[in-house]
């Protein structure tokens, strides 16, 4: 279940399974009541680290009714300034925080388990995140063509439906497993765990995770990866890092793809980098074109450094 939008993961399927499985994990929310009807709200802080971990700290204080922030002159509405940082109809901020805490604590436990296994085998795991259509699969297929005869590689592909992307990866000769999330908008640590056990992962290898196209929910879910790599293309607008700050704050590296199209679009690479560093001053940046090959050497050098 997604803590941001509440989408279900009960329709997930992983290639090789012959059933539409339901997660074994059922989350039981626990209600905690204050004394004699005392209202409680919870202050909530996200701390993003470059390895993808998200830690949450909670402290209870007196509650205030939630209402969206309204800009005085424009009447614009902002639903992200509540204690939970999000809104769901009919669910209070305290309840949203409880759900998020329950879901993420379980996910983070599984992610730590994944990370231990990957570290034991010295597997570099990268979680590629982006909007749909930014070119993740094209970048992966081009990258694998460079790397496949130099280092063992494998790929976990995430999409709501179809195995199209996994088939594109397998056409390069690299093993891949498709994870379909159904209504889900992101991969979680359980899905990566299940998929990883179906791959022939080798010691001293490289595992790419191509997450579902979405710049919101995947920011909160640690999969056990070493780095999140955020990809955007020059056709998307240079202000994406400001519009979706949580993702770019959680990423170690931002790749600006499709630079071969720069002569045809209104996009400032410099401004995009400035916006990204307003959100994450330490974020590294590479510009490239997976289609023309321009800048691919920088990406390959970055991979070698990891």
TrEMBL record:
Give me the segments passing through the membrane: none
> What's one GO BP annotation on this UniProt entry?
protein maturation
Question: Which parts of the sequence are annotated with region: Disordered?
Answer: 18-38
What's in the keyword line of the UniProt record? Answer: GTP-binding, Hydrolase, Metal-binding, Nickel, Nucleotide-binding, Zinc
Coiled-coil-forming residues are none
Q: What Pfam families does its record include?
A: cobW
Describe the location of the CobW/HypB/UreG nucleotide-binding domain by residue ranges: 125-286
Q: Which family does it belong to?
A: Belongs to the SIMIBI class G3E GTPase family. HypB/HupM subfamily.
Q: Output the NCBIfam families linked to this UniProt entry.
A: hypB, PRK10463.1
Write down what this protein is called: Hydrogenase maturation factor HypB
């Amino acid at each position: 279940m997604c803590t941001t939008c509440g989408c279900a993961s009960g329709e997930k399927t992983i290639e090789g399974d012959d059933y539409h499985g339901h997660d074994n994990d059922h989350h039981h929310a626990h209600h905690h009541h204050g004394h004699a009807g005392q209202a409680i709200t919870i202050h909530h802080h996200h701390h993003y680290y470059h390895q993808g971990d998200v830690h949450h700290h909670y402290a209870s204080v007196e509650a205030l009714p939630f209402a969206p922030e309204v800009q005085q002159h424009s009447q614009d509405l902002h639903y992200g300034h509540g204690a939970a940082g999000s809104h769901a109809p009919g669910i209070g901020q305290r309840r949203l925080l409880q759900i998020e805490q329950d879901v993420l604590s379980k996910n983070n436990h599984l992610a730590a388990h994944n990370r231990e296994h990957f570290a034991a085998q010295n597997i570099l795991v990268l979680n590629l995140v982006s909007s749909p259509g930014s070119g993740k699969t094209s970048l992966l297929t081009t990258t694998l063509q460079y790397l496949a005869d130099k280092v063992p590689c494998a790929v976990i592909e995430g999409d709501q439906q179809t195995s199209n992307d996994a088939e594109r990866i397998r056409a390069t000769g690299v093993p891949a497993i498709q994870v379909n999330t159904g209504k889900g908008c992101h991969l979680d640590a359980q899905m990566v765990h299940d998929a990883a056990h179906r791959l022939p992962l080798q010691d001293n290898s490289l595992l790419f995770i191509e997450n579902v196209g979405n710049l919101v929910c995947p920011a909160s879910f640690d999969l056990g990866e070493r780095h999140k790599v955020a990809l955007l293309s020059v056709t998307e607008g240079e202000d994406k890092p400001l519009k979706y700050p949580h993702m770019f704050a959680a990423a170690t590296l931002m790749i600006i793809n499709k630079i071969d199209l720069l002569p045809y679009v209104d996009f400032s690479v410099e401004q995009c980098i400035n916006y990204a560093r307003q959100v994450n001053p330490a974020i590294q940046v590479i510009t490239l074109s997976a289609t023309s090959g321009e800048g691919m050497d920088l990406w390959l050098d970055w991979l070698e450094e990891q």
